[in-house]
Amino acid sequence: MSAKLSLGCIADDYTGASDLANTLTRAGLRTVQTIGVPADDLALPEVDAVVVSLKSRSIEAGLAVTRSRDADKWLRGRGARHVLFKICSTFDSTDKGNIGPVMDALRADSGDSIVLVTPAFPENGRTVYQGNLFVGSVPLNESPLKDHPLNPMHDSNLVRVLARQSKTKVGLVDLATLSRGADAVRARLKDLAAKGIGAAVVDAVFDRDLETIGQVALDHRVSVGASGIGLGLARALVAAGSTKPDTLDAMAAVGGPAACLAGSCSQATLQQIANAEKVMPVLHLDPERVVAGKDEAQRALAWARDRIGDGPILIASSSTPDEVAALQSRHGRDAAGHAIEQSMADIAEGLVRAGVRRLVVAGGETSGAVVDRLGIPGFLVGAEIAAGVPVLRAVGAKDGEMLLALKSGNFGGPEFFSDALALMR
Ligand code: ADP
Is 358 helix (H, G, I), strand (E, B) or coil? Predict the structure, then answer.
């Protein structure tokens, strides 16, 4: 069993979890991202942080609370003193939750009197001033988030937004206080807590603000925010010398055959596939046959088995927007997407059975389907192949050592597949 975690994180969606895990890794914390709450006996390498990925952003609030509390219990069990509840940097939520209810429950479990809350991440254009969240240059309620299908955001004042969904009163630590440093923030939090205020939205406009926030947050047991506060917490832990010596090699070679799967039909992925054709065998699935049944996956696996001994291969379902639209109009968008995702998962499972140990997957939903099927409980985050796309080393997987790269939509440069394989040895 590994030593104590310095930081536990509970993310309310999978891509947010990946983003946070990548941010923590870049800031110097060795980080594992898990898929859901892990089993009690999951063997972890010596890491500083674990990010538990949930899918709790838009589910019923009671369920989000239960799952988040389970994750919290697991993280505390592994020694995490501080737990960050990771939300979207645009504060995606409704008056029913789920940010407020989850925060209330985690605060109650922790015994803390007050929780620091900030979705700010100045580097990515998310700033908070006087409690108002800005997305780039416009307030949240004027940003595209006002039309979000699940969580439309019509109020940029997070003190009000959070108060509507929380049982506690909500206060503000403003930028002027923050600019006077950590002790000024501590004093302000003490005043707020003395008034019975259980949550404080904290302004942050510059990167250095996150460092002050991270430093103060570590006095507490729970915080709420996006990858920005994660960065602040990581920097504070590194500065305090609370991280473990860097002995883990997430990038150590695993050998074995390599394969790429593409289910993303984004412009970037189509270009990346075209470039991969110059350097590796590429099989284009017939999407119509994929939707019709299992034969196409079997055909693809037979094709792959003949070639993986000689070098990497790529199997793609991806097609142009016109072809995608035509398939969707024949079968319905969800049915077509689901059938292709499941076929990709069948192929991934077959490839691993055939010995593949290095797997690159293009497509967010496609990656989700593949990871679920392979039953991988978590990943140690390695070096970045491209901005936001790290090499991942499977942790606790039944198939043993494996390296993966999971890329959504438009991520990665034109030679993404070769770039990935160059790092995945
Ligand atoms: P991205 O990250 O680019 O959004 P995703 O994998 O999340 O990629 O989504 C792509 C969706 O399109 C998946 O549901 C996938 O199964 C589906 N898909 C893949 N190929 C085709 C195709 N040829 N026609 C229609 N849908 C497809």
Answer: strand
Q: Is omega for the bond preceding 98 within 30 degrees of 0, making it cis?
A: yes
Q: Is the CB of 336 under 6 A from ligand 1?
A: yes
Which atom of ligand 1 sits closest to the CA of residue 369? Answer: 6
Q: What pTM does this model have? A: 0.92
Give the domains, in start order, of the chain with CATH numbers.
Answer: 7-239 (3.40.50.10840), 258-423 (3.40.980.20)
Q: Convert the pLDDT of each residue in 140-186 to its tens digit.
A: 999 988 888 888 899 999 999 999 999 999 999 999 999 999 999 99
From the CA of 13, how far away is ligand 1's center (Å)? 19
322 Cβ contact list (under 8 Å, min separation 6): none
Q: Three-state DSSP class for 286? A: coil
Whether 364 lines ligand 1, by a CB cut-off of 6 Å, is yes
The DSSP H or E segment spanning 425 is none
- How far apart are the CA of 371 and the centre of ligand 1, in A? 16
Q: Which atom of ligand 1 is nearest to the CA of 266?
A: 3
* Amino acid at the residue 4: K
User: Which contiguous run of DSSP H or E holds residue 54?
Assistant: none
Q: Is 366 near ligand 1, meaning CB less than 6 Å away?
A: yes
**Amino acid 2: pLDDT:** 55
Query: For residue 316, which atom of ligand 1 is closest to its CA?
Result: 20
C-alpha 229/C-alpha 232 separation (Å) is 5
CA distance 165 to 289: 47
- Which among 175, 155, 173 has a CA at the least distance from the CA of 164? 155
Can you list the residues of the chain whose pLDDT is less than 50? 1
- The 10s digit of each residue's pLDDT in 255-267 is 999 999 999 999 9
Please tell me the predicted confidence (pLDDT) of residue 1: 45
CA atoms of 320 and 324, how far apart (whole Å):
6
C-alpha 24/C-alpha 30 separation (Å) is: 7
**Neighbouring residues of 100: CB distance < 8 A, sequence distance ≥ 6:** 93, 162, 164, 165, 166, 167
Closest atom of ligand 1 to 287 CA is 23
